[in-house]
Amino acid sequence: MSPLKIKKGSSRHSAYNLRPQFSDEQERHTLAVIVDNEPGVLARVIGLFSGRGYNIESLTVAEVDHTGHMSRITIVTTGTPQVIEQIKAQLGRIVPVHEVHDLTVEGPSVERELALLKVASEGDRRVEALRLADIFRAKVVDSTLGSFTFEITGAPEKIDAFADLMRPLGLREMARTGVAAMSRGA
Amino acid sequence: MTRQMTGAKMVVQALRDQGVDVVFGYPGGAVLPIYDEIFQQNDIRHILVRHEQGAVHAAEGYARSTGRPGVVLVTSGPGATNAVTGLTDALMDSIPLVVLTGQVPTFMIGNDAFQEADTVGITRPCTKHNWLVSDTRNLSDIIHQAFHVATSGRPGPVLIDIPKDVQFASADYTPPQKARVSHYQPQRKGDIEAITDLVAAIEKAKRPIFYTGGGVINSGPAASQLLRELVEATGIPITSTLMGLGAYPASGKHWLGMLGMHGLYEANMAMHGCDLMINIGARFDDRITGRLDAFSPDSIKAHIDIDPSSINKVVKTDIPIVGDIAHVLEDLLKIWKARGRKTNREAIARWWERIEEWRKVDCLSFKQQGPTIKPQYALSRLEALTRGRDRYICTEVGQHQMWAAQYLGFEDPNRWMTSGGLGTMGYGFPASIGVQIAHPDALVINVAGEASWLMNMQEMGTAVQYRLPVKQFILNNERLGMVRQWQELLHGERYSSSWSEALPDFVKLAEAFGAKGILCRDPADLDDAIMEMLDHDGPVIFDCLVEKHENCFPMIPSGEPHNKMLLGEASTRDAIKEGGAVLV
Questions:
Q1: In sequence order, which residues have a C-beta less than 8 Å from that of residue B365 and are 6 or more positions away?
Q2: If you average pLDDT over every residue of chain B, what do you get?
Q3: ipTM of this model?
Q4: B267-271 long-range contacts, Cβ below 8 Å, gap at least 24?
Q5: Which residue of B has its CA nearest to A20?
Q6: Do A16 and B311 touch (CB under 8 A)?
Q7: For residue A136, is pLDDT > 90?
Q8: Distance from CA of B324 to the nearest CA of A (A)
Q9: Residues B553-562, buried b or exposed e (16+ Cβ, 10 A)?
């Protein structure tokens, strides 16, 4: 299946119709943005967020259609519903942006993130780290006599929880990819 | 059939195929091949400005007065950075421009070469889109796309950065018909359901008002025509932003005048008291709304705009309609007529009675007395002596700009060129040059303040070189009038750096450039002096010495709603509260 085949949402031109009433509550939304993979496109998106004072919690980008030179940017952002609608409308008017999908309002979706954690410890703490990694279905991808590097995949909260547990057990370094997300169903 | 040509030739060919007849520019090392091609043809006229900022504003004047995109050609580095103010101005006011910049050769990019700047990086936030052309094979395609992007949807400036080696190299030329079709195709037709909702609201409304903006003018002459038809047929009062003046004629029966911070009392009071606000191509700018939580508290708000991001940006809209104004108004009229042309006539008649009461305040009245010319008087006389002529007005930015908007009447769209969103001092003079290039036989007047005018006075050289009879009507108060007014209201009359010492003798300045200068200081001489300016076939600097401490009224003080307008000097004491003082 083509990675671009995601459900056609109405967010491109009329997203504001979805939400006639605005509240002042901060909401967390995950946006999938399909763009031409051309030089500067990421700078345009990031410049929009910094220039207009929007938040970025996480941002991932990679080319997903090599023949069509299309990339998919997944952005997790927070703001009031009015700000979220503005973000989508502003993204939609960037010229190389083809589609903007708000996965948070367009039905159920899955979010996954990958992280690498380097944990250096000895003795019982080393065994405990390995035991917890097993519970979290984290894989050991590198090991020395004094350390493990774990690879863990899951929702961001799961990675947060795993990192919290590893901290007292000798967490030295962590690298996270940021969220990749997709709507459920065909 | 394909045609091989150099990148430089391709630029000229693509411009020709896009119907471009004039380019405003300034040469330099990185665009020499393109200038060489321009030299060897006669279809496209090049206007040599005296500063790149002038080139961009001139192209804006050209674009605003014709509805066609303005084209600019400048060199790399400082040529491009000097264009940034004009690009930002055009972005804020939605003016279609195609700006071509030279760049150092591709193999030198990133090496801090002579006259190198990261042009696409610098201009990314101040263009609608921009391109760095890395291969001559893509060049003509990109130029055609650039024209498409600049003119479709909400118009705006685009920039194409062309390295010098790309200009020298050869490749096949792509004609416009074969250019890659851009996926960028903004929605033009409005949602019929939403338009029907608006018609239903119009049928019921007791106190409706049209609040129109620059979008009507950008949409084209058809939009203005349809707007006039709609206003006449429904009898609903109409006001407009600074950007939208001329879409509905100032002499029209339903015209309330401009609204906003220095708008007319009746227009602002009607906005405050309406029960249905129909925003057509305006964007609820802070100069218009005043205090947001008290902005038109009792109205249903409809908003027609081609840019979805304008809707619900600052004011919550009850009936949003995304689409091109002309298309939406056409559908709106059709549906309204089909449903029986209904309005709440008695209620609207009562609404007009209230408006007439507000009108009686006569908020623009002034008394010309004493030996000094009042700026309002100067503009009233300019209006009286030029009304009915084939006239285009540009302005700089400040008090004179607001007075021009208040005291001059605009009967048609594309006749009023002013820097609205960015408020760029120095805009008007080069813009007037662009307008005169596009309309060689028309009367083009730039209403200016002496401080703004000095910001781009080097363009006198351009005006004289091309024999452009632009009239520079300078209201000279030897002050930065609007800054001084705010210092008076906000900062205890401490006039920090807001007066001009060592002003030039404008008559001698005009003569130094080989143009005509006129000095006028006596109200009794004003009419004759204006006629002398109008009768002179060539550029004129008109130095009109006016009252130095005149304030611009009416005024909505910062942080206040529409119904808290200041009408004159007596009402200014403590007018701006602490909260309003932080606003600009």
A1: none
A2: 96
A3: 0.90
A4: B267/B239, B268/B554, B268/B556, B268/B562, B268/B563, B268/B565, B269/B355, B269/B358, B269/B562, B269/B563, B269/B565, B270/B207, B270/B209, B270/B237, B270/B239, B270/B355, B270/B358, B271/B209, B271/B211, B271/B239, B271/B296, B271/B562
A5: B318
A6: yes
A7: yes
A8: 13
A9: bbbbbbbbbb
